């Protein structure tokens, strides 16, 4: 439920209501017509108090608060990040002014943003606010901070965040630090179970004889039919900034004024310019009193319950009243109603309590996320010390999304944390578009590119089939509307029958079979070749396949086919030119010591010298010299070569290019990254891939293929094929 805000600003000097328009240093502003993305429905409140006489600081306070509003509504991202950046820039603006001016001004700032029914609060220095609920009043901050750095003193400031879920009728008071002696008990008549008009009357009584600049806010689900002209609400355009105040003549001593009189005297010019024909003061007081009474009745009545009770009473009355000319009602009908009604009420009450618990949990998690973001800023957002805080934000976002999916603020803070992690890790973002989506559902597990001529083959585990997509030679444009099936489970090919397929690769022609093909391998050890030039399929049973334990992946080098058998801890070797035979003593790749292949998930070989890279599901990565069987480098080398965040749950590895342009690409859905490594174990680039809606693609990916000149990445995830490129 979206709430609206009704605001009233008030400036008092020694018990006198000053003759001012909008109070300098205070702002209550809806989004301008050309607000940044994500800011269109936000409403900003801000209260800035500067050191020094009010008449000397009014112009500067107005400039700062105006600049703060412009910066916030021009910033993209989450509410918290936009508000934080706006406050930091405003602090820099005041600091530069203080360095150049003779008189230093420091500030106490309280900001808040209404986003739907959520309130995000930020405070700096001695900023003070009170938030009233139907159960009591919260002081913001709850306790005086241990370290206070006012606005404009230094480049680093202490920022305090708070997050609240608002209810209809909640109230908020922004006030000067000089009113820090006020307590929740003394403000109960202002902020609890009241409306803004009567609350303002009570506030005038409380601050009688004092000097203060105040802003009172009521959060409501509907706009009252009448409001004093000096009040503002979030469904009207923002007022123009006020000019510096003129010397004010005393207008009225604050005692127990009527609301209409206080607000009219505070803004006589505005009231006169928009006033209707003159009415008697008694009539004005009567209208205000009537409006206040009506709103109190509306805010405290249980409309839904009363309507339901009325319906229930009418239903029972109709059942019990039986005129002589009407047939009697069977006893089962009222019995059923008597049974169903308590069940419905119990279900509604239970759902309300469950929803309240969910709201409370999400609010708690959001507060923790804001605290972690603030902690990261305090240690220096670009330093390695900030990384654990950003990782904590990502983990908390996952908890919040499990409770409330598609929460925009959670997604915004998670995006901010990921952006910061990207900067720390040197990550480049790619933008992905959907190249093809299977409308009948699919679980795409592998992808292979046809060499030279264009064309993509994908393995669908769900239907146990391999589909071929015709493309141009850049692999970026589909040339056929629908893919064709080139292999499926149960298909008979000569003496072989396709079983459960687990991998597909592009296989260049050899001496024994000169035609290029897509090679498809099933777990029984049967290899099937689809030849695109004629569209025919051949099949052969690989030797020793009856002894396979857990075949996982295959690759090729020269005229040899290699199969990773994680269960047996071997990478089997087959000579294509000899009809996929094995030679005695050379059945598998030799390792000088146990390679621990039982945890391997993928591998590949370098096309020029046959060196081997093996990827493990627990994040290990080993690069082997196949002639000696020794490890050239491993994951510890990567950590020394620039990999700040280790691999989490990688699934695929490819070797792309040759010579100086050769690279190793590793897909790690666990961290949502695609790593590009040099053959020497150095980190070249790390990529993240985002779709058009800003969601991560690689976190759901199962395989990929890389195209060169220009760089493009084809990714399979779920039932989609994505094409990712540089922005």
Automatic annotation (TrEMBL):
Source organism, top-level taxon: Bacteria
Biased composition (Pro residues): 238-248
UniProt feature, compositional bias: Low complexity: 256-283
Gene3D superfamilies assigned: YVTN repeat-like/Quinoprotein amine dehydrogenase (2.130.10.10)
Region (Disordered) location: 231-285
Designated name of the protein: PPM-type phosphatase domain-containing protein
């Amino acid at each position: 439920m979206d709430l609206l805000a009704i605001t009233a600003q008030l400036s008092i000097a020694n018990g006198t209501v000053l003759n001012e328009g909008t109070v300098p240093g205070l702002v209550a502003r809806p989004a301008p017509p050309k607000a940044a993305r994500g800011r269109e429905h936000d409403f900003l409140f801000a209260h800035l108090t500067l050191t020094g006489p009010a008449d000397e600081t009014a112009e500067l306070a107005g400039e700062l608060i105006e600049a703060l509003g412009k910066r916030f509504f021009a910033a993209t991202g989450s509410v918290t990040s936009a508000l934080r950046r706006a406050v930091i820039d405003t602090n820099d603006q005041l600091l530069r002014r203080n360095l150049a001016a003779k008189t230093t001004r420091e500030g106490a700032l309280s900001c808040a943003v209404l986003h739907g029914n959520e309130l995000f609060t930020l405070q700096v220095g001695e900023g003070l606010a009170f938030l009233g609920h139907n159960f009591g009043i919260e002081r913001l901050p709850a306790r005086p901070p241990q370290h206070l750095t006012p606005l404009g003193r230094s480049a680093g400031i202490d920022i305090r965040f708070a997050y609240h879920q608002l209810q209809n009728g909640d109230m908020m008071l922004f006030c000067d630090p000089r009113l820090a002696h006020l307590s929740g008990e003394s403000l109960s008549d202002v902020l609890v179970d009241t409306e803004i008009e009567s609350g303002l009357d009570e506030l005038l009584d409380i601050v009688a004889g004092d000097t203060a600049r105040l802003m009172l806010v009521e959060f409501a689900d509907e706009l009252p039919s009448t409001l004093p002209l000096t009040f503002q609400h979030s469904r009207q355009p923002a007022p123009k900034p006020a000019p510096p105040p003129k010397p004010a003549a005393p207008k009225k001593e604050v005692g127990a004024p009527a609301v209409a009189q206080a607000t009219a005297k505070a803004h006589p010019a505005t009231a006169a310019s928009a006033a209707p024909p003159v009415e008697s003061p008694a009539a004005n007081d009567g209208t205000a009193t009537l409006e206040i009474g009506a709103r109190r009745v509306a805010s405290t009545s249980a409309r839904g319950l009363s309507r339901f009770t009325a319906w229930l009473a009418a239903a029972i009355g109709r059942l019990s009243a039986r005129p002589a000319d009407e047939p009697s009602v069977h006893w089962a009908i009222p019995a059923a109603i008597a049974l169903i009604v308590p069940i419905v009420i119990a279900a509604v009450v239970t759902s309300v309590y469950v929803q309240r618990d969910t709201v409370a949990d999400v609010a708690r998690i959001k507060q923790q996320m804001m605290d972690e973001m603030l902690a990261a800023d305090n240690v220096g957002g670009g330093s390695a010390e900030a990384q654990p805080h950003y990782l904590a934000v990502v983990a908390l976002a996952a908890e919040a999304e499990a409770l409330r999916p598609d929460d925009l603020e959670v997604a915004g803070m998670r995006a901010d944390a990921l952006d910061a992690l990207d900067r720390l890790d040197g990550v480049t973002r790619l933008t992905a578009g959907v190249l093809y989506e299977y409308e009948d559902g699919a679980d795409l597990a592998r992808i292979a590119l046809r060499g030279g001529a264009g064309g993509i083959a994908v393995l669908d585990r769900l239907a146990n089939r391999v589909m071929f997509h015709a493309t141009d030679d850049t692999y970026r444009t589909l040339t056929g509307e629908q893919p064709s099936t080139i292999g499926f489970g149960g298909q008979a090919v000569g003496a072989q029958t396709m079983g459960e397929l687990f991998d597909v690769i592009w296989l260049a022609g050899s001496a024994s079979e000169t035609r290029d093909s897509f090679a498809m391998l099933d777990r029984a050890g049967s290899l099937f070749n689809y030849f695109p030039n004629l569209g025919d399929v051949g099949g052969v049973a690989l030797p020793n396949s009856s002894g396979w334990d857990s075949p996982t992946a295959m690759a090729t080098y020269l005229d040899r086919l290699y199969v990773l058998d994680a269960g047996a801890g071997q990478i089997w070797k087959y000579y294509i030119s000899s009809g996929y035979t094995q030679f005695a003593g050379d059945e598998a790749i030799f390792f000088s010591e146990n390679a621990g292949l039982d945890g391997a998930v993928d591998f590949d070989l370098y096309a020029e010298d046959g060196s081997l890279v093996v990827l493990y599901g627990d994040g290990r990565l080993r690069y082997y010299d196949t002639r000696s069987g020794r490890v050239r480098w491993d994951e510890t080398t990567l950590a020394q070569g620039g990999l700040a965040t280790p691999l989490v749950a990688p699934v695929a590895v490819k070797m792309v290019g040759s010579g100086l342009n050769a690279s190793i690409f590793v897909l790690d859905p666990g961290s949502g990254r695609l790593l590009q490594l040099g053959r020497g174990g150095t980190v070249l680039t790390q990529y993240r891939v985002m779709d058009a809606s800003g969601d991560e693609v690689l976190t759901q990916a199962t395989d990929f293929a890389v195209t060169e000149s220009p760089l493009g990445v084809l990714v399979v995830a779920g039932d989609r094929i994505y094409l990712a490129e540089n922005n």
